[in-house]
Amino acid sequence: MTFTLPGFDLDAFVRSTLAEDLGEGLPGGGHDVTSESVIPADARFSGVMDSRDAIMVAGLPVAEAFFRALDPDMEIEVLAQEGAAVEPGTDLMRLTGNARAMLTAERAALNTVQHLSGIATMVREYVDAMDNPDCTLLDTRKTIPGLRHLEKYAVRMGGGSNHRMGLWDAAMIKDNHVLVAGSVGEAVRRAVEAGVQEIICEVDRLDQIEPALAAGATWLLLDNMEPDTLREAVAIVDGRVPTEASGGINLQTIKAKGATGVDYVSVGRLTQSAPAADIGLDFTAL
Questions:
Q1: Model pTM?
Q2: 15: left (phi over 0), alpha (psi -120 to 50) or beta
Q3: Which of 35, 120, 151, 224 could bridge across to 56 with cysteines, CB 3.0–4.6 Å?
Q4: What DSSP designation does 83 have?
Q5: What strands, in cross-sheet order, belong to the sheet with 243-246?
Q6: 73-93 pLDDT, tens digit each
Q7: Measuring CA to CA, which residue among 1, 17, 51 is closest to residue 276?
């Protein structure tokens, strides 16, 4: 299964993750002491990865890469599509190959699929709770270091969309930038003068909206506003730039905030604290 993400090196991720688990470079490290001492080198296993809960699937191609890194000839059948909603008990992947390789790669593969499917599953819960095709759910930069590309991929698999990928693809002017610049308008003006094309400006008061727009903001992040205030803000903006509601948004509040006319709602929790999906991998000796 071919799997590519711009800016993400799958082979390097697999190598470094396995190296961490095997203790490469540490005294006595570099091998799976349990499998090597208990499992014969020529033993073969078959295995089935399955979901224990209803989930949105994400990360199976990465799991496949872990297994193939240790046994290139492993027979792998992926049984579920990325981004698919599956019921409890659904088989996700079948494997047949070297038993040691399968056991050594098992935890890295499962950790990845559980984490990414957990994110995708939570995203779908938020999309369903918002229940608004005119408003798009966004993630944030609140990601685990080193996993941003994978976590943002999982957001897409759950039905959400990605905000900035990093600090490089858009300016986001927040309160600390405003503190140094002196005002919202001055902060935006400096970004415009620097030649920045995409300028997201956070505002937490209605009186900041016009100065931000006049200075050249191309997107307004309406921070920690209640629904009535969000409606006022949307009316003031009047379609001149996209609007985004952010802050204090959970499954209980997202519907009301998404219904205010904003174009986007962003939720940091999607990648920051999504619980792992319950996914298992059971082996049979051949």
A1: 0.96
A2: alpha
A3: 120
A4: T
A5: 136-138, 264-266, 243-246, 219-223, 199-203, 171-173
A6: 999 999 999 999 999 999 999
A7: 51
